[in-house]
Design goal:
Blueprint lengths: L1 E2 L12 E8 L2 E11 L7 E8 L6 E4 L2 E4 L4 E4 L6 E6 L2 E6 L6 E3 L9 E3 L6 E6 L6 E8 L5 H4 L7 E4 L7 H16 L4 H8 L1
Antiparallel strand pairs: 1-2, 2-3, 3-4, 4-5, 5-6, 7-8, 8-9, 9-12, 10-11, 12-13, 13-14
Length: 198
């Protein structure tokens, strides 16, 4: 998967390459790798491994590897909760409780059709200063609606919009939203997870 700038940007080359690989020794676990540029040969931004067992999920940024639970916490439901990413003096707050249910489409033939319907309301990212509690808006992520729209053959676009204040944290914003979306969209299997963690 590639993360592309908008078509009207001065430089339209891919900014990030995202790949997913199965862990061959644990077939229920997948490794997602984020690299700069358009290929798997770009500079590695980070990677994370997640599977059915949440306790064993890990994230690696540079040479720093840790359990995902030590950098990411959640309050509320897994779909509509609030996520806190704390890593290296950076506190990102992802608000997934959005109530905006909208559809933007000039025509059904639009190339950059962005749908935001039902359970796919925008996720908003803020940087929080833990001392002053001040919040700065960094990004908005919108994922397309599923079900009926896909059956029509419309090419749907996921949209990550990063503010000027968020540009210096783009790598961690992207890595954290990929992890959060993976957590949000993975069906809950509490009983199965308990058996695997035992």
């Amino acid at each position: 998967m590639l993360l592309l700038p908008p078509p009207d940007a001065p430089d339209t080359r891919p900014r990030y390459h995202i790949s997913v690989h199965m862990n061959y020794f644990i077939p229920t676990s997948y490794i997602t790798v984020v690299r700069k540029g358009a290929t798997e040969n770009g500079q590695c931004v980070g990677e994370f491994e997640m599977g059915l067992s949440e306790r064993r999920s890990t994230v690696t940024i540079g040479q720093y590897e840790t359990f995902l639970s030590s950098v990411l916490s959640r309050t509320g439901s897994h779909l509509n909760g609030e996520y806190h990413w704390r890593n290296l003096d950076l506190h990102l707050y992802w608000d997934c409780r959005g109530r905006l249910f909208k559809v933007r489409a000039p025509t059904l033939l639009a190339l950059n059709l962005v749908f935001s319907v039902l359970n796919s309301s925008p996720l908003q990212c803020f940087m929080i200063n833990d001392v002053t509690k001040a919040r700065a808006a960094l990004a908005i992520y919108e994922s397309p609606g599923l079900h009926d729209l896909r059956r029509e053959g419309i090419d749907l676009v996921h949209c990550l919009e990063v503010t000027p204040d968020g540009q210096e944290h783009f790598d961690l914003i992207l890595l954290s939203v990929l992890i959060i979306e993976r957590k949000r969209l993975t069906p809950l299997g509490k009983d199965l997870g308990k058996r695997l963690d035992a």
